[in-house]
Amino acid sequence: MQFKDHKPIFLQIAELICDEILGGKYPEGERLPSVREYAAEVEVNVNTVVRSFEWLSQKDIIYNKRGMGYYTSLGAKETVRESLREAFFQETLPEFVGQMQKLGITVEEVEQAMK
Amino acid sequence: MQFKDHKPIFLQIAELICDEILGGKYPEGERLPSVREYAAEVEVNVNTVVRSFEWLSQKDIIYNKRGMGYYTSLGAKETVRESLREAFFQETLPEFVGQMQKLGITVEEVEQAMK
DNA sequence: TTTAGTGTATTAGTTTAATAGTACACCGCA
DNA sequence: TGCGGTGTACTATTAAACTAATACACTAAA
After folding, report:
1. Can you give the pTM of this predicted structure?
2. CA of A81, closest CA in chain B: separation in Å?
3. Which residue ranges make up each domain of chain A?
4. Cys-Cys with B37: which of A9, A33, B3, B33 at CB 3.0–4.6 Å?
5. CATH, range B9-76
6. C-alpha dist (Å) from residue A58 to A54, B50, B54
7. For A39-70, how does the pLDDT look when each residue is reduced to its tens digit (9 = 90+)?
8. Per-residue CA distances from A43 to A54, A91, B55 (Å)
9. A45: Cβ–Cβ under 8 A, 6 or more apart, which residues?
């Protein structure tokens, strides 16, 4: 897997899993691949995936069953969706608008480029 | 100065200088503060500012006069502007649109939030 | 009970960014 | 010439992220 260099890999993996949950790959209560499997899949060290899973656990997106593995929490999809929507409107959008103003880019230019 | 933790400080400083050039603070051919001055201003180590200045030199945005200091290049403002516009249309905008689609956010919602 | 697959814990080493302090060559100017 | 301000080079240290390898307790299933 390709990672961007400016952001910790374990966070990029956590976000990837969020995207997969959002895309329906792991329905609520579904078991995720083990840390060793996932590490092999994205070609990364096991410890890095452990950090990603712990990060997601802390956000109540997944949880652990001792000796069995990690499972998606109830309402995980909605949790992820809400979390990302909030980040979009509170951070991404203002940043986006700020850049537009700074560079003198009009709404029309954006609409034109979006096609 | 406040720095974000996920991005190298020397890059954030370089971008800050780009913004200042864009804002007209350092016209073409104008001398920048010395590395020591700038380091004191943003409360950072001298070596970090050195890296920022070297990074900007490599992009032909500023240049060095031996024993005298750094100066903005001819066309620096336009160089910065073009560079940022390209990044906007090639990276920021596609990423923005991708997030909208992923989260099911409509153009109307964005327009509403922008007010 | 044994076995294989879980997560977890620990230790060690590498890399990159940043800090800190020092020394040096260059330049303008008094 | 000599002084003070430039950038530059160098070494050392710290912290975070990542890699690597190992050991261990837990669980389900044979």
Report:
1. 0.88
2. 7
3. 9-76, 78-114
4. B33
5. 1.10.10.10
6. 6, 39, 40
7. 999 999 999 999 999 999 999 999 999 999 99
8. 19, 31, 31
9. A39
